[in-house]
């Protein structure tokens, strides 16, 4: 008997919908009619850091690998979304908040529920700790990646160790505290520092 591997599995869309002309960063699409067959096509003009996107080491240091050079296996696999909804505004995320939830080789997503300036931040010790054990880090707008943008500890520790960073995810409240399969593949464009992704969680 055959069975459908995705049967009874919940799929959560982790990418926000982007609307051309309505975003804070550049996003324009220009549709045109192809001469040959009269089909509709589009030119896309967008920033590489808009909506859910995954950053390569090149983003931090122009001598490091671009997004197309990284092993495709980095961008999907077993993931955990650590539920940090007990944290206070502007509080540091410490190793002890993560160590009982994170396994070696995990894709680690973080969610606090506190948006914007007041979001808890990843301490530099935590960034260093993560860089020694995880495959990829993902956040939404309820986590501050950096304690300070002078230090850039998270960018440095993770990207210099070829650990991509996923930003601007959505719906992490629906997966917080859960373990699942994460998939978010970048475009294969040479020289790109970061790529928009359609990210999903398969529970
Ligand atoms: Zn970015």
Overview of this structure, please?
With 203 residues, this protein is mainly beta. The protein has one domain: 3-Layer(bba) Sandwich (Glucose Oxidase, domain 1). It has 3 helices and 13 strands. It has helices at residues 95-98, 124-131, 153-159, and strands spanning 11-13, 27-33, 40-46, 53-55, 76-83, 92-93, 107-111, 121-122, 136-139, 165-167, 179-183, 194-196, 200-202. The strands form 3 sheets. A 9-stranded mixed sheet has the order 1-13-11-5-7-9-10-4-12, covered by helices on one side. It has a two-stranded antiparallel sheet with strand order 2-3. It has a two-stranded parallel sheet with strand order 6-8. Helix 2 (124-131) runs parallel beside helix 3. The radius of gyration is 18 Å and the shape is globular.
